[in-house]
Amino acid sequence: MDSLQRFQNVTVIGAGVIGASWVALFLANGLQVVVQDPRAGVDAEVRGYVDRAADALRAVGLSPDSIASGHERLSFEPDLARAVANADLVQENGPERIDFKRDLWQRVAAAAPKHALLLSSSSAMPASAQARDMDAPERMLIGHPFNPPHIIPLVEVVPGAKTSPEAVQDAVAFYTALGKTPQVVRKEIGGFVANRLQAAIFRECVSLVAQGVVTVGELDSIVTHSVGLRWAVGGPFASFYLGGGDDGMRGFVRQFGPGMEARWRSMEAPVAFDEATSKTLFAQSDAAFGGHTRAALEAERDARQIAILQVLAVLDAQRS
Amino acid sequence: MDSLQRFQNVTVIGAGVIGASWVALFLANGLQVVVQDPRAGVDAEVRGYVDRAADALRAVGLSPDSIASGHERLSFEPDLARAVANADLVQENGPERIDFKRDLWQRVAAAAPKHALLLSSSSAMPASAQARDMDAPERMLIGHPFNPPHIIPLVEVVPGAKTSPEAVQDAVAFYTALGKTPQVVRKEIGGFVANRLQAAIFRECVSLVAQGVVTVGELDSIVTHSVGLRWAVGGPFASFYLGGGDDGMRGFVRQFGPGMEARWRSMEAPVAFDEATSKTLFAQSDAAFGGHTRAALEAERDARQIAILQVLAVLDAQRS
Questions:
Q1: Would you call B81 an interface residue with chain A, using a CB distance cutoff of 8 Å?
Q2: Could you read off the pLDDT of B256-282 as tens digits, one per residue?
Q3: What pLDDT digit, counting tens, does each position of B138-194 carry?
Q4: B:158-217 residues touching chain A, CB 8 A cutoff
Q5: Which of A178, A205, A218, A229 to mutate to test the interface with B (most CBs of B within 10 A)?
Q6: Which option is the CATH number for B194-289: 3.20.20.100, 3.40.190.10, 1.10.1040.10, 3.30.450.20?
Q7: What value of ipTM does the predicted structure carry?
Q8: Mutual angle of helices A194-210 and B248-265, in 10-degree steps
Q9: CATH placement of domain B3-184
Q10: What residue spans define the domains of chain A?
Q11: How far apart are CA B201 and CA A5, in angstroms?
Q12: How many Å apart are CA B232 and CA B235, to the nearest integer?
C-alpha cells in the first residue's frame, strides 16, 4: 500500500511556524490533517499560513487540486486525546522541554491507534530521551525538518534506542512520498547533523566578525557568492574529492590535509556570545538586514530558494 | 576610464587549473592575455581549457563574440621578464611556496610597467609575506578566486600591510568589471574567509563520519538538501537573523545562543586525518563518488552551478 494511503490521517501537535508549514505540506499531498494546539486564534493563523504557502507548494510541483482543496481536509481539536484518536501518524512540534515531551508521548501513546507512527520535529531532544516514559517507544522517532519544511527537502530521521526498524522505514517512505529527501542519522547526537554543521560554520563566522576580519554583511556575501553556491550542488566531501584531483580524497588529504589541520588548530580559541561580541553582531546585523521587514526578507529568500529548487528539478528530470 | 580599458593587457603567471580558468574569463571579457608558464605543452592545455569553458562563459552572460575571438588575443611567453614587460595587470597562480613567490614578485616588479597591478591567486600566502622583498609592494595584493574562477562569482581581495588603498580600489573595480563579486577582507588571516569557513564545516563533517553518525555520501546529501540550498540564497547571519523572529539577531542569541555555545563546546575534541579516519574517508568517498569519472562529476557540478547562477541572475534582473 502506498505510504500516503497508509498515513491518510495526520495529527499535527503544535502549530507554530514549523507546525503550520507541515500542515500546508500535508494538505497539499491530499492528507486529512487535525491540528492540536490550545492557543486562541490558532485556526485563523494556520489557515492564513496555508494560504500564503500555496504559491510555493505549486512551484515545488505539488497538485494544484490538492492545494486548492486543502482547507476542507483541515480541522482543529484542542483536546490531545481526541486529536490523536484517529491518527495514522503524528508530527509533533511542541515546546523544546523534555518534561513536556515525555508527558505528551505518554498521553499520545495511550490515546492514539496502535499502528500510529509518532514523529517529533525536535532539533534538540533525541527520541530516546523523549520516549523514556511512554508505552510503545518502538513507533516513536525524530523527523526533524529544515525550516520551512514545505520548501526545504531535507528531513533528518533519527531513531531512538527503542525505535523499531519498521518505524524508520515507514518514516522514510512517508517523507519520500511527500516529495521530501529524508536522511536516516545513524547515531543520536545533539543537534543531529544539519544543525551541528550550522553551529560549526557559525562559530567561525562569529569569530571572524569579532576579530574584525569582515562584517556580518560582508561575510554573508562571501558565502552566497562562493561556498553556498557550491554546497547547493555538491557537499563538502564531493567538493574536496574533486579538489584532490585524480587521486580524489587521497589526493586532497595528502595535498591539503596538513594545512587544514593547522587551520583547525587556529580555531581552538573559545568563541562565545559575550557582551562585546553580541554588541558587534547586533549592530552589524541591523545594518545589514534592518532596512527590510522580516516578511520581505523571508519572501525574497523563499523566492530564490524555490527558483533554485525548480531549476535543479528540471536538471534531475533531464538526467533520469 | 573603464577598468577593463585600463587593464587591457593581462599576464597570467602559472596556468594550472586556476590559471587556465582565469585565462578563459579574461579572454571572454575581451582582454589581451599573455600566459607565462614554462611547462611543455602548456599552450595546447590552456587552449583546450578555453574551448571547454566557452559554454559556461556564454551561460553566465559573457559576450559570444569575445568568447569566439579569444584565441586571437592569447599568447604564450615562457620568459617571465618578457611576459610582464607590457602588462597592465598580473594574475599570479604559481606554486604555494613563499620563497618562490618572493623571488617572483622581485623579478616582476623589476620587469613590469610601473602602473601594473599585481595580483596573487594564493589561498595560503598573505600579500605582506609575498611582497616582503619586492620594490613597489603598494601595487601587490591578493585576488583569491573560488574554483573555478570563470564560474564562481567570489574573489577575495586581501591587501597586505603596504598595499595602497588605490590598488585595492583598482582590484575591486577590475574584478567587478569582469562580472565577479569581489569582497575586500579587512585583515590578513590564514585561509582568508571562504577557506576558513570550509575548514570549519569540514572539521565537523570529518568528525561526524569518524564517529559513524553518517557516511560521506549521506553527509553530502544532507548538505545539498538543506544548508547548502539555504546558503546559496542567504548567508549564516541572514539565516539566523530570520530564525530569531521579530527580534532578529537579538532574538536568535537570546533563544538559541546558550544551546549553540554548548554545541561549540561539544566540538572541542581534536579532529585529525589520522590513519583510521583517513581509511574511513577514502573508502566512503570511493563508494560515494568513485563510480563516476572526475570529468563527469565536474561537468555535472558545473551544469548545476551555472543553472543556479542563471536563475538567480534572472531574479536579480527582475528586482532591479
A1: no
A2: 999 999 999 999 888 999 999 999 999
A3: 999 999 999 899 999 999 999 999 999 999 999 999 999 999 999 999 999 999 999
A4: 181, 183-187, 189-191, 193-205, 208, 211-214, 216-217
A5: A229
A6: 1.10.1040.10
A7: 0.95
A8: 110
A9: 3.40.50.720
A10: 3-184, 194-289
A11: 40
A12: 7
